[in-house]
Amino acid sequence: MESKKKAKVIAFYLPQYHLIPENNEWWGKGFTEWTNVAKAKKLFKSHYQPHIPADLGFYDLRVPETRKAQADMANEFGVEGFCYWHYWFGNGKRLLERPFNEVLYSKEPNFPFCLAWANETWKGFAHGLKNRNTLIEQLYDGKEDYIAHFNEVLPAFLDDRYIKIDEKPMFMIYKPLQHPDLQMFMELWHDLAKKNGMPGIYFVGHTSFPNEVDILLSKGLDSVNVNRIFYKFQTNLRARIKNKLRKIVSGMPQVFNYADVYPSFVGEESKKENVHPTICPNWDHSPRSGKEGVVFHNSTPELFEKNIEAALKNVEHKTNKIIFLKSWNEWAEGNYMEPDQKWGSKYLEVLKKKIL
């Protein structure tokens, strides 16, 4: 049935909210993403921290009722589906796979999904430790491992809920240019998909750099998702120097007003049919990184609404009107749509207002 939505908004979904042995070892027993969220503190006078969840509470993703409540909420407010972060480190090693596997094999909730392979090495600093030590390395172990990886995700690809483009399951690669065998990997997966009754895989490359779009498409990717939330931060040298000096003098994190940065979230490149823009309600990495983080300050639902409008304008003429939402539940990065105690469901309400 043809969707009446103005665009297909697919929300990135973090599965970090449950216990695993590796997290217990690296960060201490009982660690989940909520550990960082709950310990967050104000780092300057008007800093909005901590962010405390409202309707869904400090949930555990091993609980089926929680996963259903998330899907029901997302569906109510216009989200097309979840793009679950998927961790395959090579040699058969996976992490945080339980929530998605339970969604897959229980057949609940009945809500569309796809996978994004977070193909990067985990380092302590990015997740809340003081050091930059490698926790687990991303490996690329060759053809046999790539086949094993395909077989691992094949049941998901064959599921009726899986998001497809031209009958091909959509699979995102977070850092495609870091894959040493990217084209061989994709050709192999295309062949394996055809052997399993599919016409191929619809590969989406993710990037934070608009100038990489043509490079990625030349590698054989079907489309590119551009996440521009740091574009102004990356390109405005004067602002970066000013923020770094302030950090040295006052010990504050680097702070940018959301009103100043959101206009750069959507660029001209996303007018192309095979480029998907990213919308983002906010960013505040300080729960993980403290004073070393970057904070987008004074985000409001009204400003986020303007971000949505810009993305809609760039996709309105397309066949595949896909917009990625960063994110559904990245609470320790400050980019989430689930209700919190400050704003309630207002960010969801503006999304629904614009999409439905």
Number of helices: 13
Q: How many DSSP E strands?
A: 17
Helix content range: 25-40%
Question: What does the largest sheet look like?
Answer: 11 strands, mixed
How much of the polypeptide forms β-strand, as a percent range?
A: 15-25%
Q: Give the low-confidence spans.
A: none
Class inferred from helices and paired strands: alpha/beta
Radius of gyration: 20 Å
Overall 3D geometry? Answer: globular
N→C terminal distance: 15 Å
Mean pLDDT: 94
Q: Give the ordered list of helices and strands.
A: EHHHEEHEEEHEEHEHEHHEHEEHEHEEEH
Essential attributes:
eleven-stranded mixed β-sheet; alpha/beta; two-stranded antiparallel ribbon; 17 strands; 13 helices; 356 residues; 35% helix; globular
Structure overview:
- The chain is α/β, with parallel strands linked by helices and 356 residues long.
- The protein is built from 13 helices and 17 strands.
- It has helices at residues 21-27, 33-39, 64-76, 98-106, 143-157, 182-195, 213-218, 231-235, 237-250, 258-261, 286-289, 301-315, 346-355; strands at 8-13, 79-88, 94-95, 113-117, 122-123, 134-136, 164-165, 168-173, 202-207, 223-226, 254-257, 275-276, 278-279, 294-297, 322-325, 329-330, 335-336.
- The strands form four sheets. Strands 1, 2, 3, 4, 7, 8, 9, 10, 12, 13 and 15 form an eleven-stranded mixed β-sheet that branches.
- A hairpin with a 5-residue loop joins strand 2 and strand 3 (94-95).
- The mean pLDDT is 94.
